[in-house]
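Predict the 3D structure for this chain.
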Amino acid sequence: MFSIKKEENSMAKAKFERTKPHVNIGTIGHVDHGKTTLTAAITKTLAMKGF
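Done. Predicted structure below.
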């Protein structure tokens, strides 16, 4: 027989509230065709705009 004991977490977890829009975007393509460069450019642009 197995018994599972639930451990209490000593650290309180803060409630996560999503205040920004959230979208998952997948990229496909061959190696060295700019997927990482495109993702980095989008991330940088959004960060500069405060998103």
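The longest helix spans residues 35-48.
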